[in-house]
Design brief:
Helix content is 35%, strand content 15%. It has helices at residues 15-20, 22-31, 46-49, 70-83, 95-104, 120-124, 138-145, 165-172, 195-207, 220-232, 245-253, 264-271, 285-288, 324-333, and strands spanning 6-10, 36-42, 57-61, 87-90, 108-112, 127-129, 180-183, 212-215, 257-261, 276-280, 295-299. The strands form two sheets. The protein has a six-stranded parallel beta sheet with strand order 3-2-1-4-5-6, sandwiched between helices. The protein has a five-stranded parallel beta sheet with strand order 8-7-9-10-11, sandwiched between helices. Helix 8 crosses helix 11 and helix 9 (195-207) crosses helix 14. The N and C termini lie far apart (49 Å).
Length: 348
């Protein structure tokens, strides 16, 4: 009997893209249950995959956007080459992923065939697959890449993220159970629901007996949105900035539900099994919303912004057409996770 098939999966895009890759990774495991399945992601995405029970090994390397960073990456590349992978799939199908796949030394290297992109990708891949038909959800688009290996889509298109007991214990000191987390910020301001709408949601949800707590990323601009919210609603509870992604995941896991625009934490929450309400404007809910019965998505008015712009350019923000009442109605519709017993230290 020969050695098991050894496969390397690469995803070097945004954090949310790493989460949306997980169903495709699971499809590989389902089709090749005895394979040795490795994944390579940027160092900042490592907490999203590190506790997956069906992943053989997780690799990560530092990433500086706009810089190849070969000095920091070369030790990892050498170690990858020593693994002698049979196959490599680049789910991001971008320049960095294509080059890393080539340098991994895998005998067969798979990626998307996109004639509009850098010609060098064609040299890096040994097999290319045409993009999925337009209109497919991102998880299905990523799983489509595996069709070149005759791997069918996963049985479930939902993502999964696991946390450690240590993360859960640390998170218990930050967020009481039973709260609904509202994440007000995004790396792209055009994806953000207006702060006045968050203020109305707080008032209406509080009157309905729901407990909200507000969060954002750690950047100054994002924290300033929370300050604006507190000026409108001084009683609104605010989560302190949590720069540690592992700890942030533990906190998200404790939420009764999660509300946000189309941003990475939305996909983190869904992967942790937390019901979500997603607010879409400049991006498509059909392509990017979390999948599953416990998730809801709302779309604003058609967006007229330039797709390359991070800031809304319209006189009336498309997301402002989503009302607080609609969000509250979605929270009532989804099966809210009920508060459970808190975790306790060993021996307590």
């Amino acid at each position: 009997m020969g050695r098991p098939l050894k496969i390397l999966a690469i995803q070097f895009k945004y954090l949310g893209d790493a989460v949306l890759m997980l169903p495709a990774l699971r499809a590989i495991r389902e089709h090749h249950p005895d394979c040795l399945l490795h994944a390579l992601v940027p160092a900042e995405a490592e907490p999203l995959l590190e506790h997956l029970p069906w992943l053989t090994r997780l690799w990560s390397m530092p990433r500086v956007r706009g810089s190849p960073g070969l000095r920091q990456s070369w030790p990892v590349i050498r170690a990858l080459r020593a693994e002698r992978f049979d196959r490599c799939v680049d789910f991001g199908s971008n320049d960095r992923g294509a080059i890393l796949g080539f340098l991994s030394g895998a005998r067969e290297r798979l990626g998307l065939d996109d004639s509009r992109k850098w010609l060098g990708r064609r040299l890096c891949y040994t097999r290319r697959v045409s993009p999925a038909p337009p209109g497919q959800h991102e998880t299905l688009r990523l799983a489509h890449i595996l069709s070149a290996w005759e791997i069918p889509p996963p049985r479930s298109s939902t993502s999964e993220i696991h946390t450690s007991k240590d993360q859960d214990l640390r998170a218990a000191a930050i967020l009481p159970l039973g709260k609904i987390i509202c994440h007000v910020a995004s790396s792209q301001p055009k994806k953000e629901w207006p702060v006045q709408s968050w203020a109305r949601l707080y008032s209406e949800a509080t009157a309905a007996g729901l407990e909200l707590v507000f969060s954002s990323g750690v950047r100054k601009r994002e924290r300033e949105i929370l300050q604006d919210l507190q000026r409108l609603v001084p009683a609104a509870p605010i989560l302190n900035a949590i720069p540690d992604l592992r700890l942030f995941l533990g906190v998200l896991k404790r939420a009764r539900a999660f509300v946000s625009g189309d941003t990475g934490p939305l996909h983190f929450a869904a992967g942790l099994g937390v019901p979500t309400v997603a607010l879409f404007g400049p991006t498509s809910a059909a392509l990017w919303r979390p999948l599953g019965e416990c998730h809801r998505a709302l779309s604003g008015a058609p967006c007229g912004c330039d797709g390359n712009s991070a800031v809304c350019q319209s006189a009336v923000h498309c997301l402002s057409r989503i009302s607080a009442a609609e969000v509250l109605d979605c929270l009532r519709q989804i099966r809210l996770g009920e508060p459970q017993e808190d975790v306790a230290p060993d021996g307590a």
